[in-house]
Amino acid sequence: MIYIRERTTVPIPNVYSLFQAGVTGKSYIIMERVTGTSLGDIWPSLRYIEKEAISAKITSYIDQLRCIPSPKAHCSVSNKPLRDRIFWT
Q1: pLDDT tens column, 6-16
Q2: 3-state SS, one letter per residue, for 21-79
Q3: Which of 4, 32, 47, 68 allows an S-S link to 13, with CB 3.0 to 4.6 Å?
Q4: From CA 26, how far away is CA 20, in angstroms rounded?
Q5: Residues 66, 43: contact at Cβ < 8 Å?
Q6: Structurally, how many domains does the chain consist of?
Q7: In the predicted model, is pLDDT for residue 31 greater than 70?
Q8: What's the average model confidence in pLDDT over 9-28?
Q9: What's the domain of life for this entry (predicted)?
Q10: Residues 44-53: contacts with CB within 8 Å, 24+ apart?
């Protein structure tokens, strides 16, 4: 997350701790709480122009993320692009 914060204007919460717990070895991130209203909760009530502005901001963030050089430390499990119903990478 620090890597992204240093290279973009994408809002990133502060990370306080990262650890694996117990026998399962599940990973956990303790991070700053992000206040606000869930976009999914208010989307139906927004005007078209507001939806356009939000979509443009998200597009800007995705464009910035795509331009970041890989730190050569992480990759997808399948080493293939992520397929998402809304955003394709």
Answers
A1: 999 999 999 89
A2: ECCCCEEEEEECCCCCCCHHHHHHHCCHHHHHHHHHHHHHHHHHHHHCCCCCCCCCCCC
A3: 32
A4: 5
A5: no
A6: 1
A7: yes
A8: 87
A9: Eukaryota
A10: none
Residue 44 maps to a domain: yes
Q: How far, in Å, CA of 47 to CA of 44, rounded?
A: 8
**What is the H or E stretch that residue 80 is in?**
none
Is 54 within the bounds of a domain?
yes
Q: Determine the residue type at 36.
A: G
Instruction: Name the residue range of residue 7's domain.
Output: 2-67
Question: What distance in Å separates the CA atoms of residue 1 and residue 32, rounded to the nearest whole number?
Answer: 12
89 occurs within a structural domain = no
Q: Which residue has the higher pLDDT, 16 or 26?
A: 16
Structural domain includes residue 78 = no
| pTM of the predicted protein model | 0.65
